[in-house]
Amino acid sequence: MSRIALVTYDPGSEPNRDSDLPVLLDALRVDGAEADAVCWDDAGVDWGSYDLAVIRSTWDYSWRAAEFVEWAERCGKVTRLANPAGVVRWNTDKRYLGELAEAGVPVVPTRYLAPGDAADLPEGREYVVKPTSGAGARYAARYAPGERDAAVRHLARMHEEGLTAMLQPYMRGIDAAGERALQFFGGRLLHASRKRAVLKAGAAYDADKVPHPDLEPWTPTPAELAVAEAALAAVPESPELLYARVDLVDGEDGEPRVMELELVEPNLFLFLHPGSVAVVRDAIVAAAPR
Fold first, then answer.
1. Is 276 exposed, middle or buried (0-12, 13-18, 19+ CB in 10 A)?
2. What is the 3-state secondary structure (H, E, C) of the chain?
3. Radius of gyration (C-alpha) of the chain in whole angstroms
4. Angle 25-195-186 (CA atoms, 0-180°, nearest 5)?
5. Is the peptide bond before 83 cis (omega within 30 degrees of 0)?
6. From the first residue on, what is the mean pLDDT of each consecutive set of 10 residues in the chain (290 residues)?
């Protein structure tokens, strides 16, 4: 019997926000696996006692990214970690978008401002400021050309915390076609979903945001699938990926571009795609060493 850890976060006194977690636990146990939901930062866990640790919903990691990467490297030395620690290290810093662009993958144009850099902000169009280490639209906001002072304060706050900022044009295609999330599991397309724009005009960077507004099932186009597969093929050192989510938006030319490549803890949206539960379960069981 395989012993499998589904790795999550500690919600404290609140319910865990991962609605897929109990569904996956039940599916694995019915299939005969011994499966536990385990918090990544629980110092009492013996990770070596598991055959496989699958990072599922470590949704607080971006506040403690360096600590999280250190955990992944320790965990990966004593058991099989999915996705591998090297992937975690690379993917927790969104400067990977620059590497994808260099590899020829169409991505949302991105510049980076590290602490100490001047506030060189775009002029003449809407743009987005967000951190290179973030999740759930944390510290993200969109700005119109006349909102420079607010954007400068936003940058200063992130730089005070040691965060590097990303600057991207606001992709108007989101308003028309939304953002599409193509989910892969076990090396093949699992399902796809679409959501509407997260960042509202005038919303403060530290305001609460709905991370997946108006989520709905989506059938990816051949162009979307091609861009997603190109992004996965460009991940350095060709790692074995158990899971991946590629988030796409349309560029000004109407063609899909990568907004984010999520290889650490993507929400699977199984509540929207219940037929995918068995596929995910089988892939996890197959990944566990015998």
1. middle
2. CCEEEEEECCCCCCCCCCCHHHHHHHHHHHCCCEEEEEECCCCCCCHHHCCEEEEEECCCHHHHHHHHHHHHHHHHHHCEEECCHHHHHHHCCCCHHHHHHHCCCCECCCEEECCCCCCCCCCCCCEEEEECCCCCCCCCEEECHHHHHHHHHHHHHHHHCCCCEEEEECCCHHHHHCEEEEEEECCEEEEEEEECCCCCCCCCCCCCCCCCCCCEECCCCHHHHHHHHHHHHCCCCCCCCCEEEEEEEECCCCCEEEEEEECCCCCCCCCCCHHHHHHHHHHHHHHCCC
3. 19
4. 40
5. yes
6. 95 92 97 96 97 96 93 98 97 96 97 92 91 79 92 93 93 93 96 91 74 92 98 92 97 95 96 97 92
Residue 7's closest CA among 39, 34, 45, 29? 39
- Using the structure block, give the residue that is written with the tokens 């975690």: 88
CA distance 129 to 167: 5
The overall pTM is greater than 0.70: yes
Query: 103: exposed, middle or buried (C-beta count within 10 Å: 0-12, 13-18, 19+)?
Result: middle
Selection from 222, 129, 209, 224 nearest residue 173 by Cα: 224
Are 55 and 265 in contact by the 8 Å Cβ rule? The answer is yes
